[in-house]
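Figure 6 in text form: structure in, sequence out.
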């Protein structure tokens, strides 16, 4: 008997759906339980494009299956909030007060958290430490001779919660001779794409193409793994749109992950030593969906004194997986603890990863295990510190 929670089993369920079988709660649960981490794409010797299959199936689920009122409302809350910067900023204001006064800890001691639904507890645990948002200039001149003209996706969650990563990315690109354009923009549609919200995701994709395509760019550079994997697929996603099919294909051809781009470009800026041992975590949508593993490691190893610690079971997801850790909190928590344990075993003094969701998931897992003091950074934050000659203590303190 085929395991319905295996890739083969889910493909069997997909076929049943195509053959007209009704979408039962059991069938949908097996589809919802898939991380969408794309590890099976890497492992499959036959080259089955499971990534496209699961996303198409999730779109079918959203069109044809009637979710419970609570499930529908919870998912709608996520997608009415996270892809929109202004809404996130409004939500962040009271959350800053929530953190400043330690309300979460008080609620836990009072036992209030225990009575909340698991999904709400998961969202509270994943909340990042909110910092003042850094403004990203629309134009940044290159340092020295101009080598490329690039656009940068600053994103939605990335800009509101991790704007320091965007700032570091722009500084690194400028230091390497790039003229950097960061136009006013919105969500790229990655979260919606991975969750099967097809119309919504395509609208975000069209708006992103409209934003960047007339800027005379050599490349569009992405610093979030999930965003990059989706934007590289715009040509496929919009293949049936007569107004955007060719434009999307041309746009996707210019998209590069920032580490991928830097390795293609080659370094010119001087790297200052950073004597630190870092555990590098492969974000699934970078390693599996985009096949990018070597470039981030090479980028970090070009920094004198940098030691890369490999994490056991690197190919296994941390449990973030888009909105998975919010809608399937129990299995996500198990995966998070598994990843956190493997990170701790490396003996590294910091963690480096290329996706905001992974950062939140791993930080939450480490905090629950009593190891919330282990700093975490994006590869561009590490490289930026090296280029600016900052002391390693500033990197390890997260300042």
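Output sequence:
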């Amino acid at each position: 008997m085929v395991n319905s929670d295996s890739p083969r089993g889910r493909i069997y369920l997909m076929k049943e759906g195509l053959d007209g079988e009704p979408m039962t709660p059991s069938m949908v649960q097996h589809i919802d339980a898939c991380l969408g981490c794309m590890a099976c794409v890497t492992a499959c010797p036959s080259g089955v494009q499971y990534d496209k299959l699961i996303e198409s199936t999730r779109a079918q689920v959203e069109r044809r299956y009637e979710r419970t009122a609570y499930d529908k409302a919870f998912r709608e809350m996520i997608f009415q909030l996270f892809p929109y910067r202004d809404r996130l900023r409004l939500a962040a204001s009271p959350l800053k007060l929530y953190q400043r006064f330690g309300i979460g800890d008080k609620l836990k001691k009072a036992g209030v958290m225990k009575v909340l639904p698991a999904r709400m507890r998961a969202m509270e645990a994943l909340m990042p430490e909110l910092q003042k948002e850094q403004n990203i200039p629309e134009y940044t001149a290159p340092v020295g001779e101009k080598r490329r003209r690039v656009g940068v996706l600053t994103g939605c969650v990335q800009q509101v919660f991790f704007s320091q990563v965007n700032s570091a990315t722009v500084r690194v690109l400028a230091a390497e001779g790039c003229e950097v354009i960061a136009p006013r923009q919105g969500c790229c549609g990655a979260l919606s794409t991975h969750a099967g919200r097809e119309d919504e995701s395509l609208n975000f994709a069209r708006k992103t193409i409209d934003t960047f395509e007339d800027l005379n760019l050599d490349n569009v550079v992405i610093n979030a793994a999930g965003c990059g994997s989706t934007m590289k697929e715009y040509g496929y996603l919009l293949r049936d749109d007569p107004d955007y099919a060719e434009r999307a294909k041309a746009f996707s051809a210019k998209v590069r992950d920032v580490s991928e781009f830097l390795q293609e470009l080659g370094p010119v800026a001087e790297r200052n030593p950073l004597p630190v041992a870092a555990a590098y975590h492969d974000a699934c949508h970078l390693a599996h969906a985009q096949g990018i593993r070597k470039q981030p490691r090479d980028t970090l190893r070009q920094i004198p004194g940098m030691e890369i610690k490999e994490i056991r079971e690197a190919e296994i997801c941390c449990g973030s997986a888009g909105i998975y850790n919010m809608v399937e909190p129990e299995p996500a928590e198990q995966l998070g603890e598994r990843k956190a344990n493997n990170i701790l075993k490396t003996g590294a003094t910091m963690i480096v990863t290329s996706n905001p969701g992974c950062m939140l998931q791993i930080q939450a897992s480490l905090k629950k295990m009593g190891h919330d003091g282990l700093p975490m950074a994006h590869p561009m934050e590490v490289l930026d510190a090296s280029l600016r000659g900052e002391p390693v203590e500033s990197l390890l303190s997260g300042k």
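Caption detail: The mean pLDDT is 92.
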